[in-house]
Amino acid sequence: MHAVTLALTTFLALTTAVPNPFKEIRPTVLSHYSVWSGAIDYNKPNGRVFKDGRTSDITTLVKFVIPSAAAGKPCQFKFPLGTADTVTGSRKVDVFKSLGYPTGSTTGWPPGNRRDVQLARLVFDANKVASYEDIRTIESFTCPPAGEWPVEIVGVYDNVEVKWTGGSSGPVLLYKY
């Protein structure tokens, strides 16, 4: 019996000691963007995407800062949510590249959201796990050069809400080191 226990303990130690080949790049700033007015609520602790077809759509502007160690390495975009986070309605979001990131709050235009090309469409299942539905440009890609890499998270269809707390949930880049 002792030999079996020792073998299992050794096996578990070896399987948990396997290094993770990816490092995380978490957003440095989240800001809410009001589509109807162009207002930006800068540096929020949480992210929010909202559309109901009756009031202003809310998107989240996300600023990643790519370290020089990640530039040119294999990269992945993930969107994990926690148990306290919310997903309702269509359960779908689009991810767009942004041409720049705001430097503070505004009450209207400019600068606007500076939306560029669509990078992905994600759908969250009943367990709040996001998977790629259509466009998969950032499912696996080469990390951009060191510096700011801004994106915008936008709701899909006229009934959707996704809220996340920031920190350990919400959009994240993983790069292979």
TrEMBL record:
> Keywords in UniProt for this one?
Signal
Could you say which residues form the signal peptide?
1-17
Name recorded for this polypeptide: Ubiquitin 3 binding protein But2 C-terminal domain-containing protein
Native source species: Amniculicola lignicola CBS 123094
